[in-house]
Amino acid sequence: MLILASFCLYGVFAYDLVRTDYTNLITLYLVLFGLFIKIINTHKGNFKLLVAVAIISRLVLLLATPNLSQDFYRFIWDGRMVLQGFNPYLYTPDSFIAIGQYPINQTQQLVTGMQALNASHYSNYPPINQLLFALANLFSTTSILGSVIGLRLIIIAADIGTLYFGAKLLNRLGLSKHKIFWFILNPFIIIELTGNLHFEGVMIFFLILSLYRLHLNKWKWSAVVLAVSISTKLIPLLFLPLYLKWFRADNTSNKIDLKKLIRFYLIVALTTILLFAPFFSMQFISNYSKTVGLWFGDFEFNASIYYLLREIGYLITGYNQIAIIGKTLPIIIFISIWCLAIFQKNQNYSTLIKSMLIAFTLYLILSTTVHPWYIATVLILSVFTDYKFPLIWSFIIIISYLAYANTDNTENLWIITLEYAIVFGAIVWDLFKTKKPLLKEKLF
User: Fold this and answer.
1) What DSSP string runs through 142-190?
2) What integer pLDDT is reported at residue 441 of this predicted model?
């Protein structure tokens, strides 16, 4: 009955919910999360049943149009542009509207759906995303719902792959393979990835596959798959310094095998370059770097430390200091990740994954923009550790959608404060509960 109730509530969430109806949004999510915890705790010994629940929960959403995000309109636009032979990195959607050209089917409907901000920028989605966007549109160039179904099937397939290789990796690490369901059955993951069509799920699949191949000591294939993950979403670029100590001369030595390390990085770099090559031009480099730079230089949403710094900037200067803060925070992130690479014993596999978790958590805490689906990467990495704060974050992140409860989509800073008070509280609770530092060794 709990499982059937969960299926029904996913149906209500997908086909009946309006994003601005925050009461129903929060209520449905709370009940789904409660059912999710109860189902896992009741049936954690029945792996096949939980697999079936995970797949059916996603299939319930198959025919739904995403109701919490408009990004899928841009995914469809980019995919159809690729199929028509256009380079999506060289044209903004509104540039065609401005001159009265309609290069793909449903041009006006797609541009209206993605809204002005998205339509005025060049695509920032890496080449594997573009390939998958095109694949999703291959058999549906005249129906938005048909394209949505295509995108959703790809994401569902990626989640099944993450389930399969995640469970195998847990087994190899001596951990209970049912832990993968804290990710796979999480309502946050089902709603944000399968429901709202965010391709973090595909990136995560390739990341987990890469980590699995690395554990098998198939490091060359691990490097290739890691490059594919980077070429889906740029997030795994943050993890590259953390491999610094992985390659040792022998199992008893801490001496780094520079030849293997350099070959690993070269494979990642060359594979990534090859994947970007079909879209390459000098204009592409200019457009892509500017678009990616916008995330730290212009956009603001659901931030934590940045919002504190922004308020301090207002008090001191009287205006928003994002131009300065947005350039400073990435430097802090860069230095922090290199500290993890140098001072952590990442030659140990569990420590390597923990360092990845810490690195991306730091990235999110210091970012100017933290959309809900960004938490997916932290959540999957936490499955292989003892830390629970990402699970709690995946629960409380839903309140960030309250920004859409008003007509001008402005954030309530008290809501953001509540969210991060709970998140930071969960991190502190994790530290005391485990009675060991978040970093296995002290940095200094």
Assistant:
1) S-HHHHHHHHHHHHHHHHHHHHHHHHHHHHHTTS-GGGGHHHHT-HHHI
2) 40
